[in-house]
Structure formats: structure tokens, C-alpha cells
């Protein structure tokens, strides 16, 4: 077990194989060797670390996992796994169903937490948590990016293009279609 | 004002105006129209002010929204993860068309624009100019990073305008490939243009599985010999008079489709001293002795050799007579495209195997070997660990007996632990195969009990395809007993 200490000074006893998915923690453990010393995580709050390391316990947790890790699905029946242990994209795709309505609901409900987890994933260096699907259309099998209007709506982004830029965008899209 | 009050007002106004002259009424109309125009103008201004305020609110909300606070490096990483290989063009465009901040960020991130790109250089498009302009913009965004480009050719010929855009970034080609399936083979004129470019980044060149078509007369054939980093090459030759110059000595992977004399393939191999992996499609010779007087070709680093034989000529084993590959671990022989018979001279392969003592994996597809030829091939592969056979009807009871571990006598291929059999005519009995498989299998418990190092390696992977009836039933029984068998 490894003892982690969060920015708000909470302590977490966590299994080594779970925390070692974080490149940052893995490197720390390698540097320190076998030790009972706690590992400080000054950029991760306890609420975020809970989301990252603990198995899901309720609907909110499942939502967060699914959204960030692109694995949760309304049809998943397998036992809950900590997000940090989630598997490859291929495996993910097999288990994912149409979740776009749910996606939308989640993103509007809990954006603050979404971004906190993204920042934590970046800090902890956990690639699998830097989910790709939050810009992607969950209803599409090919997993292409969402249309710009949809991304703007989901993240309160303003279309601030100049007419010249709009014209350039139109040309780009025509080229992409004619290819 | 409620609807009733509004109605009452209009009625009262009309009743009052009814006593006026026509001129007075017309004046009243003019006055009302002026007031309406004034109100319209005020409403328009107010709507503009309202929309501006709405835009301000949205912009301010965006400034404090979590997505705006993400570090740019992280945003780029997420953009990168959101781009799918299949839809990468649409995805990159969509991301860059969200807002000016994202657009700037995306345009300043060349790695978002570096997925392998197919370029249709044919003239069949509605507007080659628009296509070329769009291509130029796309290619510009990946600068200065290297790119993988696949050229699609069709029967309409090559568009000069589009080709120019591709040639313009030749310094950045990492891989240059021709898509041959369903398209035209590369013309010599095009290959010459490509070879004239500076190819500093080029690591992989695929000139297709069809030979170059001589569409122009030029004194010297194109040469890619000056590509300093070229290491992976796919090329097809039908005549030794049309072999482009290549930096053969620096190649580590060669896919050669040789439909001219097999000696041409050997001449090329003789120059490829650093090959690590090779796939050589080659014809045979008309007689056995034709390749006998060649110097030995030693490929010191060759690890993986795949040889699909083709054509009418029956003598293919001389190919091995002048080849030495001391580091070879995988040898794959495919006889399925041979149109004549097969004259197998055991000695050539045996001598080659003596010069390649580290082969651990053998793959055979088809071929008219005898069981004895095949047994000999196995015997001279002392480290054989993996064997894959597809439609090899020489895998019969005698071969199976030689592989069986009985009476504590070390069998043939004692290191063999991985066996794949596909579509093999049953020239063996189910009992024999089951017995052989069982003789080389034991449980962990029995291994612990004996405490002896077994003289054969235990199976780790058994894959059988096309087994039917009793044979399949027997394999299913062994599967239940714990053997690692997969049945298709």
C-alpha cells in the first residue's frame, strides 16, 4: 500500500498497482524505494483523488468515470474498477453504447470537476485519464470530433470569427468534402 | 396595454377621426408613419445593444469557464487525442473552427496536422485548382514536421498543379507510398519527378506492387540513392532494365516483388547487407544448376525472411543455395502462387539451415514437398519453437510420429511449443495427432511431482482451423483436459 497526501491534507492508503498507473507517482516510488513515507500530491484535492482512485459507488461516480475515461456505459455490467485502472481504447469501444444525451447532461452539470480531473491527470501523468471523448461525438461509431457548434454550446464558447475567417473555414470544409 | 384596452383605444381614435376631412386623416396617417419609423429605428438600436450585451456576457462567461483556464499544452494534448486516424481531416478542421483561440492554438500545433494523408493526384476532380489550394493550406499547417503521404493515381493522368504542392514539401516526406489497389501503377515520368527532389526525411518508400510503367524515354533511370534516411522499401520489378537506383546498403526492410529473373532478386539482395526483414516474391529457375555459381550472399542482420514463390518455373530451392542468414529467426515459405510443379532439392535448404542455425519460427503455405522433405526441414531447425502450416498436405502420420515424445527419446523439434494447422487434408489419423499432442503436454502438478527437466517443451499455443468430425471431437477432448487448443 502507498500513502498519498492531497492538497487539502487528507491521507489515502492506496494499492501500489493502482497508483503506479501515474507516471509521476511511479517515478517517485522508484526514486524513494520501499518506504512508509507519505507521497505528497500538492496539486490534487481529495475530492479529485477519490474520483481517480476509488471504485464507483453511485451514479455520480459512474458518470464521472464514463465521461472522462470513455468506458462507462448504460449497459456495462462488469464490476466497477477504479478509473486509474481503465483499459485501452479498443476495449473501451467494445463496451461503449450511445451516451450522447447523457454526455450532454453530464458536461453541463459538472464541468468544474471535469476540468479538475483533467488537470490532475495531467499533473499525475496518467494518459488514460486524459480522455479523448469529451470533444468527440459519443453517438458516432467512428468517434469523430463533435461539430464546432456543439462544442461551443457544451463549453460556453463564443464564435468570434471574423468574416474573413468564416470564409476561410467555408473553403476548408468544401475541400474536406470534395476530397 | 391589454388587447381589450388596445381595441378600445383604436375604436375611440377612429370614431374621433371619422369627423375629420380626408386631408386631415392623411396628415394623421403621415404623422403615425413617421412615429412608426422612429420607433423602428429605436427598436433596431436596442436590439443591437441587447445582442452586444449578450455577446459580452457570453465572452465574459467563457473567460471564467473551466475550459478557458486549461493550459494551452494540455488543450493541445486533448485536441490530439480527439483526432481519430480515420476522420483526422474533419476532426482537425472541426476543432480549429470552434473559436479564434482554438483556431490559433490548433494552427500553431503542427503535430495535429501530421496524420498520414492520401493525395489524389489524378485530374478527375471538379476543380484541381481548389483541391490544390486546399492541399497547400493543409500541408502548410504541419510544417516543419515530417509527413506520410500516399499518392492515389488513376487513369486520368497526373495533375501538375496538385503534384507541385506535394513536391513542394518533399523535404518533409517521411513516407511516400503509392496506392496501387484499384489504381494505376506508377509511371516512370512521375517516379523521375519524385526522385529529383531532395529527400532528406524520407524513411519509407513504397512504389507499389506493380512495376513502373515506362511512359517516357529518358537516358538514365531515376535514382533514390541520395535519400540519406531511406530504410524501408517496397518495389516491384519486371525487368532488370527498369530498376531504379536505391540506397540498397542502408535498407533494413525490403519488400521486393520480382517478376523478372530470380537472379535479379539475388543481385539486389547482394547489395542489401543491412537488411533485418525481407519479403521477396520470386520465380524459380528452369533447372537446378542455374544459380550454382553465384557468390554467397551473407545477410548478417536478417531476422525475418518471407518468400512467396510464383511463376511457372519449378526449381525454387536454388534460391537458398547462395544465401546465408546467420541471425535469421523466422522463415516463411509460400508456394500458393506457383503455377507449375515444385522440384524440391533438399540439400539447398538443408545447407541454408546450417548457415541459419537460429531459426525459431517456420511458416509453410501450400507446396508439394514430400513428408520426408518436410521432416528434413524440421530436423535442421534445431531451435524451432513455432510452426505454422497452411494447406500443407505433407503433414502426415510419419511427420506426426517424428514429433511424438515416446520412451524418453528426444523427438523432432523438441523446443516446439506453438503449432498452427490450417486447412490440412487429413493424411493422418485423429488418434496419431491426439497422441502426439498429449505426449508433449503435462500439468504443472505432474511437473512438480517428477522434479525432472523435461526433454521437450510443453505446448503453449495450439490453433487448429478447418478440423471436422472425429478429429475436431478429439481436439475438443484434449482442450477439456487442459491443452491450450483453439479450434476454429
Automatic annotation (TrEMBL), chain A:
<dbReference type="Pfam" id="PF03931">
    <property type="entry name" value="Skp1_POZ"/>
</dbReference>
<keyword id="KW-0833">Ubl conjugation pathway</keyword>
<feature type="domain" description="SKP1 component POZ">
    <location>
        <begin position="1"/>
        <end position="52"/>
    </location>
</feature>
<dbReference type="InterPro" id="IPR011333">
    <property type="entry name" value="SKP1/BTB/POZ_sf"/>
</dbReference>
<feature type="domain" description="SKP1 component dimerisation">
    <location>
        <begin position="146"/>
        <end position="176"/>
    </location>
</feature>
<comment type="similarity">
    <text>Belongs to the SKP1 family.</text>
</comment>
<protein>
    <recommendedName>
        <fullName>E3 ubiquitin ligase complex SCF subunit</fullName>
    </recommendedName>
</protein>
<dbReference type="GO" id="GO:0006511">
    <property type="term" value="P:ubiquitin-dependent protein catabolic process"/>
</dbReference>
<dbReference type="GO" id="GO:0016567">
    <property type="term" value="P:protein ubiquitination"/>
</dbReference>
<dbReference type="InterPro" id="IPR016072">
    <property type="entry name" value="Skp1_comp_dimer"/>
</dbReference>
<comment type="subunit">
    <text>Component of the SCF (SKP1-CUL1-F-box protein) E3 ubiquitin ligase complexes.</text>
</comment>
<dbReference type="Pfam" id="PF01466">
    <property type="entry name" value="Skp1"/>
</dbReference>
<dbReference type="InterPro" id="IPR036296">
    <property type="entry name" value="SKP1-like_dim_sf"/>
</dbReference>
<comment type="pathway">
    <text>Protein modification; protein ubiquitination.</text>
</comment>
<dbReference type="InterPro" id="IPR001232">
    <property type="entry name" value="SKP1-like"/>
</dbReference>
<dbReference type="InterPro" id="IPR016073">
    <property type="entry name" value="Skp1_comp_POZ"/>
</dbReference>
<dbReference type="InterPro" id="IPR016897">
    <property type="entry name" value="SKP1"/>
</dbReference>
<comment type="function">
    <text>Essential component of the SCF (SKP1-CUL1-F-box protein) E3 ubiquitin ligase complexes, which mediate the ubiquitination and subsequent proteasomal degradation of target proteins.</text>
</comment>
<feature type="region of interest" description="Disordered">
    <location>
        <begin position="72"/>
        <end position="96"/>
    </location>
</feature>
TrEMBL record, chain B:
<feature type="domain" description="F-box">
    <location>
        <begin position="68"/>
        <end position="116"/>
    </location>
</feature>
<dbReference type="InterPro" id="IPR001810">
    <property type="entry name" value="F-box_dom"/>
</dbReference>
<dbReference type="InterPro" id="IPR032675">
    <property type="entry name" value="LRR_dom_sf"/>
</dbReference>
<protein>
    <submittedName>
        <fullName>F-box domain-containing protein</fullName>
    </submittedName>
</protein>
<dbReference type="InterPro" id="IPR036047">
    <property type="entry name" value="F-box-like_dom_sf"/>
</dbReference>
<dbReference type="Pfam" id="PF12937">
    <property type="entry name" value="F-box-like"/>
</dbReference>
Amino acid at each position: 500500500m502507498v500513502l498519498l497526501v492531497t492538497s487539502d491534507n487528507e491521507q489515502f492508503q492506496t494499492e501500489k498497482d493502482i497508483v503506479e498507473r501515474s507516471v509521476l507517482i511511479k517515478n517517485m516510488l522508484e526514486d524513494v524505494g520501499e518506504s512508509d513515507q507519505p507521497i505528497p500530491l500538492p496539486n490534487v484535492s481529495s475530492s479529485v483523488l477519490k474520483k481517480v482512485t476509488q471504485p464507483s459507488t453511485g451514479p455520480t461516480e459512474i458518470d464521472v468515470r464514463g465521461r472522462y475515461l470513455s468506458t462507462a456505459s448504460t449497459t456495462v455490467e462488469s464490476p466497477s474498477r477504479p478509473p486509474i485502472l481503465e483499459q485501452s481504447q479498443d476495449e473501451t469501444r467494445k463496451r461503449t453504447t450511445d451516451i450522447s444525451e447523457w454526455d450532454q447532461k453530464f458536461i453541463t452539470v459538472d464541468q468544474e470537476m471535469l476540468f479538475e480531473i483533467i488537470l490532475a491527470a495531467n499533473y499525475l501523468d496518467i494518459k488514460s485519464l486524459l480522455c479523448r471523448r469529451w470533444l468527440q461525438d459519443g453517438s458516432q461509431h467512428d468517434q469523430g470530433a463533435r461539430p464546432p457548434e456543439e462544442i461551443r454550446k457544451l463549453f460556453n464558447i463564443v464564435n468570434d470569427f471574423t468574416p474573413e475567417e468564416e470564409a476561410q473555414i467555408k473553403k476548408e470544409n468544401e475541400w474536406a468534402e470534395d476530397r | 396595454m391589454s388587447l381589450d384596452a388596445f381595441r378600445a383605444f383604436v375604436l375611440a381614435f377612429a370614431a374621433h377621426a371619422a369627423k375629420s376631412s380626408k386631408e386631415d386623416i392623411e396628415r394623421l396617417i403621415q404623422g403615425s408613419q413617421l412615429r412608426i419609423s422612429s420607433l423602428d429605428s429605436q427598436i433596431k438600436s436596442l436590439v443591437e445593444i441587447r445582442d452586444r450585451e449578450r455577446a459580452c456576457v457570453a465572452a465574459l462567461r467563457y473567460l471564467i469557464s473551466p475550459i478557458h483556464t486549461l493550459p494551452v499544452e494540455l488543450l493541445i494534448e486533448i485536441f490530439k487525442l480527439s483526432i481519430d486516424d480515420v476522420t483526422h481531416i474533419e476532426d482537425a478542421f472541426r476543432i480549429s473552427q470552434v473559436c479564434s483561440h482554438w483556431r490559433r492554438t490548433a494552427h500553431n500545433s503542427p503535430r495535429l496536422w501530421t496524420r498520414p494523408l492520401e493525395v489524389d493526384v489524378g485530374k478527375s476532380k471538379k476543380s484541381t485548382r481548389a483541391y490544390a489550394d486546399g492541399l497547400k493550406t493543409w500541408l502548410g499547417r504541419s510544417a516543419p514536421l515530417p509527413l506520410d503521404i500516399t499518392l492515389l493515381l488513376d487513369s486520368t493522368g497526373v495533375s501538375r498543379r496538385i503534384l507541385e504542392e506535394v513536391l513542394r514539401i518533399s523535404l518533409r516526406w517521411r513516407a511516400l507510398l503509392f496506392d496501387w489497389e484499384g489504381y494505376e501503377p506508377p509511371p516512370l515520368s512521375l517516379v523521375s519527378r519524385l526522385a529529383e527532389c531532395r529527400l532528406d526525411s524520407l524513411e519509407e518508400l513504397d512504389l507499389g506492387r506493380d512495376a513502373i510503367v515506362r511512359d517516357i524515354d529518358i537516358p538514365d533511370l531515376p535514382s533514390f540513392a541520395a535519400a540519406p534516411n531511406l530504410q524501408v522499401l517496397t518495389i516491384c520489378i519486371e525487368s532488370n532494365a527498369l530498376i531504379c537506383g536505391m540506397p540498397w546498403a542502408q535498407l533494413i526492410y525490403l519488400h521486393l516483388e520480382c517478376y523478372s529473373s530470380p537472379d535479379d532478386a539475388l543481385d539486389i539482395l547482394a547489395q542489401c547487407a543491412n537488411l533485418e526483414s525481407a519479403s521477396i516474391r520470386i520465380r524459380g529457375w528452369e533447372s537446378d544448376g542455374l544459380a550454382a555459381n553465384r557468390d554467397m550472399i551473407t545477410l548478417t542482420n536478417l531476422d525475418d525472411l518471407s518468400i512467396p514463390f510464383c511463376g511457372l518455373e519449378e526449381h525454387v530451392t536454388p534460391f537458398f543455395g547462395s544465401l546465408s542468414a546467420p541471425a535469421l529467426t523466422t522463415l516463411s515459405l509460400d508456394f500458393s502462387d506457383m503455377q507449375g510443379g515444385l522440384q524440391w532439392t533438399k540439400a539447398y535448404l538443408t545447407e541454408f539451415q546450417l548457415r541459419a542455425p537460429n531459426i525459431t519460427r517456420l511458416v509453410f503455405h501450400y507446396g508439394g514437398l514430400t513428408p520426408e522433405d518436410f521432416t528434413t526441414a524440421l530436423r535442421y531447425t534445431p531451435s524451432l519453437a513455432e510452426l505454422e502450416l497452411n494447406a500443407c498436405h505433407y503433414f502426415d502420420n510419419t511427420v506426426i510420429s517424428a514429433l511424438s515424445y515416446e520412451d524418453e527419446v528426444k523427438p523432432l523439434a523438441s523446443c516446439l511449443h506453438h503449432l498452427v494447422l490450417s486447412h490440412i487434408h487429413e493424411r493422418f489419423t485423429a488418434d496419431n495427432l491426439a497422441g502426439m499432442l498429449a505426449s508433449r503436454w503435462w500439468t504443472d502438478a505432474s511437473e512438480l511431482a517428477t522434479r525432472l527437466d523435461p526433454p521437450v517443451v510443453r505446448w503453449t499455443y495450439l490453433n487448429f482451423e478447418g478440423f471436422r468430425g472425429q478429429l475436431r471431437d478429439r481436439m475438443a477432448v484434449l482442450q477439456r483436459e487442459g491443452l491450450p487448443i483453439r479450434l476454429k
